[in-house]
């Protein structure tokens, strides 16, 4: 068992392939690694390892996608005037802030997850935000993040040696042990070809709104927190 290292393993997680001996250890590994236990149907498989089973799995995956898209197109929420009005208002307010906000059809995961709102009284966005720490294979979802909050303040509960949560700090210790000057915050540039993926480097001292201006956002911002000292395959625009 890769969780307790005591008992003989009986189960293997379809998602991360970790061995476990009991239901308790299965739950512990899911909590520690933020693993949902669901097999990744889109995981990369090299040509040399590709078998008929993988082909059948891909075929069934495409069938599921077709059924989901068809069900989403028929869903009553798609044709709801209130939903259309809310999304139009959200995109219009974002455009006024020089942000090109794009929304996906009902049925897509990001559309379902997105909790971004705009407060007309305060004239402020409250963003749904995802933080990804690739060096630790960790990601966190934040809801209701005000657009005037700086990126440095947003990251404090995660990588600040003093203010961060002890459990999170332990998981992200490679970040908390590094100087703050080594931390880089990147955001993927949308609408580029798959063989030319580039990232914008954001300014941690500026607000979330200032960093999003002039950018294309699909549903909600996803920020990648990386370290300069560690090798990363994320290429910043212009490099």
TrEMBL record:
The keyword Ubl conjugation belongs to this UniProt entry's keyword annotation: yes
Alphabetical UniProt keywords: Isopeptide bond, Metal-binding, Phosphoprotein, Ribosome biogenesis, Ubl conjugation, Zinc, Zinc-finger
Biological processes, Gene Ontology terms: box C/D snoRNP assembly; maturation of LSU-rRNA from tricistronic rRNA transcript (SSU-rRNA, 5.8S rRNA, LSU-rRNA); snoRNA localization
Annotated InterPro entries: BCD1, BCD1_alpha/beta, Znf_HIT
CC terms in the record's Gene Ontology section: nucleus; pre-snoRNP complex
Alphabetical list of Pfam families matching this protein: BCD1, zf-HIT
GO MF annotation terms: zinc ion binding
Keyword tRNA processing attached: no
Occurrences of domain HIT-type (ranges): 1-35
Function: Required for box C/D snoRNAs accumulation involved in snoRNA processing, snoRNA transport to the nucleolus and ribosome biogenesis.
Subunit structure: Interacts with FBL, SNU13, NOP58, NUFIP1, RUVBL1, RUVBL2 and TAF9. Interacts (via HIT-type zinc finger) with the RUVBL1/RUVBL2 complex in the presence of ADP.
Family: Belongs to the BCD1 family.
Protein name: Box C/D snoRNA protein 1
């Amino acid at each position: 068992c890769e969780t307790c290292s005591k008992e003989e393993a009986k189960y293997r997680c379809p998602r991360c392939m970790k061995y476990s001996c009991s239901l308790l250890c299965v739950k512990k590994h899911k909590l520690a690694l933020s693993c949902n236990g669901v097999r990744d149907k889109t995981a990369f498989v090299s040509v040399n390892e590709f078998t008929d089973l993988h082909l059948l799995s891909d075929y069934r995956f495409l069938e599921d996608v077709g059924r989901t898209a068809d069900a989403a197109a028929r869903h009553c929420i798609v044709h709801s005037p209130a939903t259309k009005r809310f999304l139009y208002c959200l995109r219009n307010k974002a455009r006024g802030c020089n942000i090109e906000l794009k929304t996906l059809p009902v049925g897509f995961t990001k559309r379902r997850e997105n909790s971004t709102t705009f407060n007309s009284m305060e004239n402020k966005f409250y963003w749904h935000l995802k933080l990804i720490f690739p060096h630790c294979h960790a990601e966190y979802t934040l809801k209701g993040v005000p657009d005037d909050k700086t990126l440095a303040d947003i990251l404090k509960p995660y990588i600040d040696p003093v203010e961060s949560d002890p459990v999170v700090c332990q998981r992200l210790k490679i970040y908390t042990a590094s100087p703050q000057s080594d931390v880089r915050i990147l955001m993927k540039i949308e609408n580029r070809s798959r063989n030319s993926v580039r990232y914008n480097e954001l300014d941690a001292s500026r607000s979330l709104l200032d960093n999003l201006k002039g950018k294309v956002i699909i549903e909600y911002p996803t920020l990648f927190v990386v370290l300069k000292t560690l090798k990363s395959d994320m290429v910043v625009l212009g490099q």
